[in-house]
Amino acid sequence: MNEIIDAHHHCWQLSRPECRWPTPALEPLYRDLGPADFWAEASSCGVSGSILVQSQPHLDDTQYLLTLAERDPRILGVVGWVDLSASNAVQTVHELADHPRLCGIRPMLQDLGEDDWILRRARPDALAALAERKLVFDALVTPRQLPVIHALARHHPTLSIVLDHGGKPNIAQGEMEQWTQHLAALASKPNVACKLSGLATEMMPAQPAEAMNDYIDRILTLFGPKRVLWGSDWPVLTLNSHYADWLARARERVRLRCPEQEAAVFGGNARVVYGLAPKS
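Predicted structure:
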């Protein structure tokens, strides 16, 4: 059986001071969720490794996730957070990069007030430091911000960028044309890869799972199977789907579109893109 790596999941502890999300209004997620909870679902689906991704815009959250990774060898890498606009951003990047499990940084651009924050406010030397230390830039954006990530990829061609959740297309409203245009432009940049993750969250609860098919297919076609990484976005995924169902849906589409690359999409690409150690 091929190795399966979940390239995108979260863990949080509500009692930690930096944990501001989820709020009580999001009742299904408002509880402590740690690695044991994740593996209870993922292991039964054949997943043997993962990338743990930040959920709080705070360095303490990054340190917490790195501690979790130190305790669990199945967590192969951590995507943390840094304020890339801070005066000490370069120093912080280098300090975090010394940790062997840190493999990327995610500034949560979708939540910032300026769509082009990463171009206007982030320190270019901090972005250069990410590239120098071979850390991936995880881009959490909405479709309207895709041209910004295209510009970022153009300005920093040595920076490895991974687009989270396919750029969060509006599947609920069936919007595809503009998203596809922006995604195609972004896919033309060789330093950009795309996570096949988070799509179920962009649907209405009553929509059939088949509504995702065209979006999955577009991602595979535009980026090619060597630049697509599967991830669950657990536990956010559980708001609208189940772990096993999403994995099965993604595998079905990959087997239809590019069966010879299934091992890459569901494991190998994560190792290459995030610079993980080869499987022993």
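Summary: The beta strands are 4-9, 47-53, 75-80, 102-105, 136-139, 161-163, 192-196, 228-230.
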